[in-house]
Amino acid sequence: MAETRTPEEREGELAARLETLAEEVAALRNLVEQEARQRISGPEADRVEDLLEEAGRRMTALWNRGMKEVAQSGRESPLTTAALAFGAGLLLGALTRRK
Prior knowledge:
Elements: H1 7-39, H2 43-76, H3 78-97
Helix pairs in contact: 1-2, 1-3, 2-3
């Protein structure tokens, strides 16, 4: 039986999944920072922290731009948007399972 969710419902679900993805990326950033602090000290630790902060700023900018594009493409092509979200979830899952 075909789904009867509206484009707005699918867009809301996609936005919620992207928000979860952003939270998981932030948690991953914190883990990397903690690990770096345990292994590196002094100026090198400060450099790593600066790099992580810059990566966070870039991620935020990319996130904001992506949310605008997702909202637009979700209206224009909901199936493609859902497939991209699924792929992003798989990628994040693979990255967080690595040890």
